[in-house]
Amino acid sequence: MKQRFFRNLMLLFVVALLNPAFMTAEEQDGKPAGQKSGASTPALMPAHDSGGYISIGVSMNDLTGTPQKFAEYESLRQGVRPVGQIGLWGISRGVAWDLLGERGADPNDQRYEGRLDLRRFLRSEFRFNRLPHRLDNDPLTNIDAGKANVLVWHDNQDINISYCPYYQDMEIRNRLALPFLPQISFNLDYRSQGRKGTSQARAISKCGSCHISTVVRPMDQTINELRAGAEVHVGPAFLRYQYTDRSSKDEAPVLSYTYDRAIHPLTGVLAFYNRVQYDQLDGPIPIAVTPHFSKFQHEVSAKLDLKEMGELQGLFVNSRSNNDDMGIGTDTRVVSGIYTYSFRDLFLLTLRARNLDVDSDMWLVDVRETVSPPGTPLAGKTYSEAYPSFGNADYLATSSLAREVFTGSADARFSLPRKTIARFAYVYENVERPHFDVKESTTQKLKFAVNSSPYKDLKVRAGYTYTHTKDPFVHSNAAVAPALQPYVSPGTPPSPILGTQYWEVWAERQADLSAMPSRSHEFFAAATWSPADRAAVSFHLRADRQKNHDLNFSSWSDTDLSPSGEIWIAPHDRIDITAGYTYHRRRTETLFSIPVLDG
Questions:
Q1: In CA terms, which of 251, 348, 359, 491 is 20 to 30 Å from 139?
Q2: Is 453 within 8 Å of 460 (Cβ atoms)?
Q3: What is the pTM assigned to this prediction?
């Protein structure tokens, strides 16, 4: 049903592709130009006109080396290739249209645009872009390492492949304003995005060695979006509603991979088979799967002009995003408001409030528990059966994305003598997370800035921001595990952790780590002096100091200092001389914990 609707929609607006326009012209039959009766022709717009042009050229490229870093979205087809552009437009009896088309050296380098205006009652716009997207082919040579029989190694199944899928974006926008209801307008828009070609996928086998493989992954992704809404203008009030329906899917063939055997790296025995959910015995397994995705959104916005009392704006958004393959999703609700008040050109006050509520579904992860084969130390047992203190392997998954965020701010701007503008602001934010170690964080921020031009040849800017955060983002119990087994275990080479399980080490970690400050100071200043029309001297300074001293084992800090200066002189109309100096110093202090499990 949805496919039939989109097909009918495309047929309905195919005229936007063939006769697109927006050169807003109107005409009244039998009336002199400029007479205002109903829909009239603009005074300087002819009643009938048309034209066009064609441009043809060539593109020459000679490429050596790897172009990914500097030409990610550019066509670099080798040799001499034709390129062209065409433009058409026309006006007749109140209907205006125009069309533009471009074709580059690459078949996937295309652009088409068009607009159509029917007596200003119906306006349609069409846009289509297609361009190559050059991606990296990572050789993975930097990961190879080894210690005794424990190896980290890779193999590439996509050597010498140049990944360059194409991306295309098509959009049709329509606005309808009925002549007998000038206060109401409607919109119906459609957008389709696609990515087709190949990209690099990776898979990793563990236990015996960390074996990373790269494989060629086909891409055939499409995103379809339909938007419909209406706007109402009644006196000083404005109301807008829009509904969005978006769906995404990847119809490329599913890629599969066979993992290595889960063996012990030293003995080669299947001692680790009950620690994994699949290995070579399970045969090819799907990897790099892109799930089908859908989203539905309702958006209501309003604006009220209070005349001398200011202006009031409001927004409400309610959306649902779904992973259709797993049957789970996220609900998002946003309520926000802005109040603005100004007194002549001397004072401007802006108050903002916003509440974001994100609620994600929970789901039960049913872990497939494999049994260690005969001849191994844990033969016939799952991992949970071998280590009862580990507990049940199945668990209820929750999302750290779930949260409620309230943000409020007050911003005041004053106009002072000598072309000086001073700004004061206060920002408050509270974040509550139901499924995270740090349940609540509160941030308060004070800002001050001044922008002044006290003299004709001098301009000065400066500002300071102080931020205090209570309980910022912290990774609890992230490092510093105690010596769980203080004596050497037998083995070659001997290891102090033989017999100690990974989860036992992780559970005993004690130190909290964070890269987020609890207090920060940010300062900037800039000055420009122009003693003459052809000379200027500038100075800039930025200094930041951030620190988190609420951690239990250490503190985290980040200090950044960056002064700079420039001199510009133009002794002649065709001669410019610029000299500058920049100094940058940054120092970060934190606690590092080196893993001890060869990982």
A1: 251
A2: yes
A3: 0.81
